[in-house]
Structure formats: C-alpha cells, structure tokens
Amino acid sequence: MAEPRAYLDYNASAPLLPAARSAVVAALDAANPSSVHAEGRAARRLIEDARRDVAALVNAKPDHVIFTSGATEAAVALLSPDWRMGRAALRMAHLYVSEADHPCVLNGGRFVREKVTRIGVTSDGIVDLDALALALASHDKAEGLPLVAIHAANNETGVIQPVAEVAVIVKAAGGVLVVDAVQAAGRIPLDMSVPYADYLILSSHKIGGPKGIGAIVAASDLMMPLPLVPGGGQEKGHRGGTENLAAIAGFGAAAREALAGLRDIEAVRQRRDAIEAIVTELVLDAEIFGKRVERLANTTFFAIPGTKAETAQIAFDLAGIALSAGSACSSGKVGPSHVLKAMGHGEEGGALRVSIGAATTAEDVERFRKALAGIAARRAARERAA
Ligand code: PLP
C-alpha cells in the first residue's frame, strides 16, 4: 500500500473543505441567479448567503462584497487609474506597491509601468514605511490620487505587514489603500469596520474553498474602479457575466469555516513551531526568514545552506511531503524568490516553504522529520566527501 503523504502547502492551495465541496455540488444544478422565476430566486439566495458569509469573515457589509474569478482578477480590477465616485470620474495618478507583493499586485494591474513605484522592504520583509511616506510626499495630486497596494501577509514568508500604520500614512497623503488579504484571511482576524483598508482582496482556494473564485471587499462603495469585466450588470455593474454560482457557494461555506477556524490558530502555531524546531535541530545552520517579526501561525520559510531548494523539494516530494520551493505559484515554475531578493537575501539556494492548516497532524510533522533527516544526512555525506 502506498505510504500516506503529508500535504504542507496550504499557502499554494488549502485542501478543499468537506463543507465547501458539499456547497459546490449542491449549487451545480442551480438556475441563473438573474432570472426572476422561483428557480432564479433560489439561485440568487445562494449567492446572497455566500456574500454574507464572505463579508462576515472580514466583518464587512455584504453589499460591499463583489465576487471575481479570484484574487488576481480582483487585483487587476482594483489597480486601475480609472475610477468613479457616483457619476463623477476619478483618477488614480500613480500606484505604489511593495517589492514583496504577489505578482498580481507587483505587476501593477491596469497601470502603465511608468506609473508604478515599488517600495522596498526591510531584511525582515516589512514594507519600508519611511520610504512609502517619502514617495507619497512627492506625489503630484494635481494628476490624481495616489493608490497604494500592500499584502496583509506574505505568501512565502508569512510575514504580517503593519497595515494599520500603512493606512495612516496613506490617509495622511489623501490616498486609497488596497490590501491583498489572500493569505491573511482565516489566519488572522480582519475587521473592515475599523479603519484598515479601503479595499480587500480575497481568494477562496487559500481558505479551503474552490479555486477560481475570489472577491473585492470594499469598506465603502462610494468609489469603485471602472469594471475590468463589464457586462450584463451583475455584481451591481462592477463585474459582468453570469455568476460562478457553485464556486461562490463553496467560497461562502469555506469563509464560514475559516471564521470559526480562527479559534484553532494557536494549535496550528504549535504544529508550525514543532516543524521549525525540527528544522533547527536537524539543520543547525538553517535560516528561517521573517522569524524576528510577526508572522502567520501556519507558515515557515527556511533555507538549508549548500542545498538548492528545488533539489530539496524534489527529495521531500519523493519522501511523501508536498511543500513549496519559493512561491511556486505559477504553473509549476520555480524561480528565484523575488520576496527573498527584496529582503536582501541574494540568490544562493532559495528557500523551502512549509504552510499548514488545522487538519495538519502530528503524523504529518513526523513524516516531515523523517524526510528532512534523510536530506540532512545526504548533505552531511556530501560535505564529508568534498
Ligand atoms: N495574493 C497572494 C498573497 C497570493 O498568495 C495569491 C496566490 O498565491 C494571490 C494573490 C492570487 O490568488 P488567486 O489564485 O485567487 O488569483
């Protein structure tokens, strides 16, 4: 019988939760939610229930949730120079992002390259607040407002950004703040009812829902970007096209579970800490990135000096452990981590990311130990032979 595997790659995609699977299957037969007949109204109810659940996860108003095909679409929709405030046109003149943002933000959405400024991060991966304030101080408001985008928590390191402090700086500059909360949702409490972000970006598959569905959550719907996908008026005209009802229903179910799961986060932290203890026990010179600052409880990102992360990842995979080298976010492509580079950690061998969830067991942790012990033994043998 095949050895059971340990899936330690939740930041890539969390396993589909049973409740999300059931909600998806139950919604597959639903009618068109724009139809006025009873079947259409039942389908509409499914969407509105999910909208309430997604809003509750971040304590927002359900009316301010707009479903998109994922966080990438949500980012590209929001990162636009062209906005509306009621009927009036509004211009965002320049976009400010952090060097450690996910590519869907880093690439600047609908801004031309010259209108995007990348703000550096410290060696711990925290956005350089002084550099941000300085950049915003020289923003020319005559051209339009400054738009700032930052992730709440990093997908590779798990480092949590000081979003409240960023918000103060952005407000002082009269700007608008978009926060990519994809990795933070369900892992730290998020509350849109207090001053935080103007807009949040969420993704279903990072919290145990289906892939290909996400959301924009607005603190207020006074100002919105021109739609990226105009169409038949769905999502209050902010995102056209018949809604992906099954995925939306699954996202709603996952959001409900993620909100309840926040109370289990300390148990997740203990398992992550156990994994880190194994890393430092078996690899004495291992480097854990972002360890000095606040991080998500489920993530550790570490380098084994002298061992290429890609090679170690393959060894882990063969030993039955699924984890990531770098971010590995795009179609199996593993390249140097732009996050590590932004943190000033050069290009040495890259790093390995272990990201877990409430379903991660003590057996998974033991399997990780066995696999890492093998990798460490081979490394020691290599060093002896050299
Ligand atoms: N933002 C962050 C921080 C992510 O980790 C990811 C996915 O890895 C995304 C955005 C993109 O999400 P989606 O796959 O829903 O487009």
Which features characterize this protein?
Aspartate Aminotransferase, domain 2; binds pyridoxal-5'-phosphate; globular; Aspartate Aminotransferase, domain 1; 15 strands; alpha/beta; 386 residues; 9-stranded mixed β-sheet
Question: How would you describe this structure to a colleague?
Answer:
It is a single chain. The chain has 2 domains: 6-14 and 263-385, Alpha-Beta Complex (Aspartate Aminotransferase, domain 1), CATH 3.90.1150.10; 18-260, Aspartate Aminotransferase, domain 2 (3-Layer(aba) Sandwich), CATH 3.40.640. It is 35% helix and 17% strand. It has 11 helices and 15 strands. Strand 3 (82-85) and strand 4 (88-98) form a beta hairpin. The radius of gyration is 22 Å and the shape is globular. The model is unreliable at 327-331 (pLDDT under 50). Bound molecules: pyridoxal-5'-phosphate. Pyridoxal-5'-phosphate binds at residues 70-72, 102, 104, 151, 155, 180, 182-183, 203, 214, 329.
Q: Can you lay out the helices and strands and say which pair or pack?
A:
Layout: E1 6-7, H1 18-27, H2 38-57, E2 65-68, H3 71-78, E3 82-85, E4 88-98, H4 103-106, E5 116-119, H5 129-137, E6 145-151, H6 163-172, E7 176-180, E8 199-203, E9 214-218, E10 223-225, H7 245-261, H8 265-282, E11 287-288, E12 299-303, H9 309-318, E13 321-322, E14 324-325, H10 338-342, E15 352-355, H11 362-385
Helix pairs in contact: 1-7, 2-7, 5-6, 8-11
The chain binds pyridoxal-5'-phosphate.
Entry summary:
The protein has 386 residues and is α/β, with parallel strands linked by helices. It contains eleven helices and 15 strands. It has two domains: 6-14 and 263-385, Aspartate Aminotransferase, domain 1 (Alpha-Beta Complex); 18-260, Type I PLP-dependent aspartate aminotransferase-like (Major domain) (Aspartate Aminotransferase, domain 2, 3-Layer(aba) Sandwich).
